Amino acid sequence: xxxxxxxxxxxxxxxxxxxxxxxxxxxxxxxxxxxxxxxxxxxxxxxxxxxxxxxxxxxxxxxxxxxxxxxxxxxxxxxxxxxxxxxxxxxxxxxxxxxxxxxxxxxxxxxxxxxxxxxxxxxxxxxxxxxxxxxxxxxxxxxxxxxxxxxxxxxxxxxxxxxxxxxxxxxxxxxxxxxxxxxxxxxxxxxxxxxxxxxxxxxxxxxxxxxxxxxxxxxxxxxxxxxxxxxxxxxxxxxxxxxxxxxxxxxxxxxxxxxxxxxxxxxxxxxx
Length: 272
Fold this sequence. Notes:
By secondary structure, the protein is α/β, with parallel strands linked by helices. The protein has helices at residues 41-48, 71-78, 96-101, 110-115, 120-132, 148-160, 178-194, 206-212, 235-242; strands at residues 2-9, 18-25, 30-34, 56-61, 64-65, 81-85, 166-170, 199-202, 215-220, 223-228.
């Protein structure tokens, strides 16, 4: 369980990027975080894994307070927080397998990390996960030879190699074409269910958020102004979050081509 209480983040004397944010995520929930650029979506995710230091507030993961951790304790906690990035963050000159095994760096000693001599159990798990996301045949291929969707699948597997207790995805589909982005959203949805893993997805495409997640959280100017089920995310909620501005992309309020939402309820949701 993720429990965020009164989370605030300021940079110097500027206005708060996040202000008194409260959020609880349980079980294998897939939660979309939506909002205009600058709303605080990425900052929130980065506060959770401490890539950004919160100004104040509490962040607990399965009862462990993350905000006060330092040194070795912080490194150990980060092992349990998987992160999927918009820009993939792969090492292009390394193979898919080497990139995936980088997810185990927090578990191996310095010699194993430098020489990339990982335990056989880690290698076996990497192959199994690559097979699960249907790219095991690329295991020995350089990362820079893959398509965007394939690279993002590598990023997802690398995060899962950490054996995380939560998965954070920061705009995981922003660099992908519409069809591939839906494939990645379906994959994240399926993995959350299979692994009983809570997933937080920072996303601009509200149509995909409605189709592939169980809950939508809307931020504006660092404050939460919507928290509810996709079917409750109305045109009024959209206007409140984005301030009545034009939709950030042409897919924002359209139902994805795949139509039905594949979540636990298995119910299709109409567009606005």
